[in-house]
Design a protein that fits this description.
The protein has four helices and no strands. The N and C termini lie far apart (about 65 Å).
Length: about 140
């Protein structure tokens, strides 16, 4: 497979990943609304558990989507680095990611800012459900 095919597959993946992300972002919004609905209207234990599981499931889907994005970026850079000759743009892509071995998939983001951000999202989903509302 040549550079053009590798870049074309990567760009096709980016389109499908963006569509999946848009759906997940909407579902995350729904989870936030459900969390606030439980806080504002109260809810029994079963409702709290279901809303929490729904929110955590949406976080999982978003982390999975982010993991797919990361491994595809790295896999593309690794595949390009294995070619005998690549264009200057391809070389900049490889140099930017600096991947020296075949990447592995991880559900945990490698960027510590994203790690903290997702912990904040989880807190924002769960705390309104499980903490008492102050009047």
């Amino acid at each position: 497979m040549g550079e053009y095919e590798i870049q074309s597959l990567f760009n096709s993946f980016l389109i499908s990943n963006a569509i999946f992300f848009a759906g997940n972002a909407f579902l995350l919004w729904v989870a936030f609304r459900a969390s606030l609905g439980v806080r504002d209207n109260g809810g029994n234990l079963v409702t709290k558990i279901l809303v929490s599981l729904f929110g955590l499931g949406i976080v999982f889907l978003n982390l999975q989507n982010l993991g797919f994005l990361q491994i595809n970026w790295e896999s593309t850079a690794f595949a390009l680095s294995q070619l005998d000759t690549i264009s200057d743009n391809g070389q900049r892509f490889v140099d930017f990611l600096n991947i020296t071995e075949a990447p592995t998939y991880s559900l945990i983001p490698t960027n510590p800012i994203f790690q903290v951000w997702w912990l904040v999202v989880i807190a924002m989903l769960l705390l309104p459900v499980w903490m008492k509302k102050e009047d």
